[in-house]
Amino acid sequence: MKRLLTYLKRHPLATLFAPLFKMLEASFELFVPLVVAKMIDIGIYQKNAGYLWRMGALLVLLGIIGFGFAITAQYFAAKSAVSTGRDLRNDLFAHINTLSFKEIDTLGTSTLINRMTNDINQVQNGINMFLRLFLRSPFVVFGAMVMAFTVDAKAAIPFVIVIPALAVVVFAILLITMPLYKNVQKQLDDVLLSTRENLLGIRVVRAFNRQESEMESFGKKSSRLFFRQIHVGKISALLNPVTYVIINLGIIAILWSGGNQVYLGRLTQGQVIALINYMSQILVELIKLANLIILLSKAIASLNRVNNIFDMQPSIKEEGAFLASKTPIGSIAGTAAVEFKNVSFSYNETAKEVLSNITFKAMPGQTIGIIGGTGSGKSSLVNLIPRFYDVQNGSVEVDGGNVKTLNPVSIRKHIGMVPQKAQLFKGTLRENMRWGRKNATDEEIYQALEIAQAKEFVDSKDQGLDLMIEQNGSNLSGGQKQRLTIARALVKNPDILILDDSASALDFATDARLRKAIKQQIQNRTVFLVSQRVSTIRNADQILVLDDGTLAGIGTHEELLRENEVYQEICASQLSKEEVPYSVKTAN
Ligand SMILES: Nc1ncnc2c1ncn2[C@@H]1O[C@H](COP(=O)(O)OP(=O)(O)OP(=O)(O)O)[C@@H](O)[C@H]1O
């Protein structure tokens, strides 16, 4: 709540004017029954047409002024709500961008998207309604009661009974329904998450012919939402009949006692009508208030979920010593570009270690091949170099500095990372290529495309660097995307290039040409080549063989082929017998 207040304070005028104008509108509304009473008692009773016209005009005037105030209040309430929503959304997006992968993995992307969209929208709607009604409704309820007493204290006694009775009913129903509405909201979350996951993975769903079972599972979640909504709806539906019964009993009481008073000449007919009108105003406002409370309870639940993300602190902060961006890595003679010293790592403290006791040195200009079975820890290992995660034991050093003491942004400036999943963004090819270096020239981009073996296919498209890339690169093939992501990393001209299985969708010939071009054209750069293919890493200066998170061997292709059983097994499954002359125990 405190956080929300600081956001509302950024728009003080709109936030104050909205309830203020709503109160002014309500004040005008409270005079209407009095004017109607006068019309009955004087205009109709005395058959005074002139008076009726004047009072009629006054009613129209009250209506126009009230309408003006209502529109102004609505404008300010919407302005405050929308501005607060925008600020919250921007700040939450910025905050999510500071979170480390550890937190993002824990929360999950779908949850984060939900917080950014649905939850902030709920908060926005809550603010809008709150500013419009939180002062107006209680003001009208008590104002109408006070006005009723000014009409006639004795005849207004039913108000003293009806208002508390109404309040008790409304709040009892709210008390029962509020937790139920929370459940509805939770289920709605579930449905939204499921929708998002299914639509993002629609190709996989179709490929596995899972439509039926996915529809069934979605149907179940959707039905659960339906039943929860119906259940809470049934209880909420009691609100209207019960409140109408109470109000009508109040009206009967007013009519009965008021009628007697009119008969005795102590009260006029107009005054009785005014009392009935005030009773109706109270009913309408109490129902509005109940709806406001329901909406607020949803908005508060959403606000709490947004706050949970705001309260989450990044485990890796953008602080620490700066790795000089102007001095290339490898300038200090004898210092390794990257060094792992007894590194052990797991994704969370309680989980099994994904990497255990890894020690190796990558000297500047060396190419390091990393090979191992699926899930052996190859991607996890390279993700530690740009400090995407922090290790639990040992240390990862870049250019002689422990990454834990270095500002992660400054480390990443030196690294060109090509992740396993090729990810491009909507925009032109040129915009995508400039992600690592804003001012890269077309010539530099073409040079990178050439090394990445992507120039030919870019040239085959008429638009060249203006080629429009759709969301997620959906208008490109898997291999084309991979080559473009490699080119994007090369445009950055990094000191350390990490290719995490980035050529898996390329044919062998293109893969070979790519490696040759990297070797010839990017010298003095340290390159990490992660692959499951022996052919990709066999010419590396050093090959790390990973087996279930441990370093099973380190050396050149020839050394490992001679001495390392795990490597021999991998080679035996991929290379010809002539290329693997050594005995392999479990070769296939
Ligand atoms: N974000 C994560 N959170 C939790 N566990 C993870 C995460 N990423 C990977 N793992 C686990 O860490 C282990 C190593 O995964 P990693 O991706 O490093 O293997 P890999 O050798 O690169 O596999 P592949 O060749 O299939 O890409 C696996 O058991 C995997 O389940």
From TrEMBL:
Residues 16-298 form the ABC transmembrane type-1 domain. Residues 338-573 form the ABC transporter domain. InterPro entries: AAA+_ATPase, ABC1_TM_dom, ABC1_TM_sf, ABC_transporter-like_ATP-bd, ABC_transporter-like_CS, P-loop_NTPase, Type_1_exporter. The chain crosses the membrane at residues 50-76, 133-151, 157-176, 237-258. It is a multi-pass membrane protein. SMART domains: AAA (SM00382). It is found in: Cell membrane. GO terms for molecular function: ATP binding. The lineage of its organism: Bacteria, Bacillati, Bacillota, Clostridia, Lachnospirales. Keywords: ATP-binding, Membrane, Nucleotide-binding, Transmembrane, Transmembrane helix. This is ABC transporter ATP-binding protein.
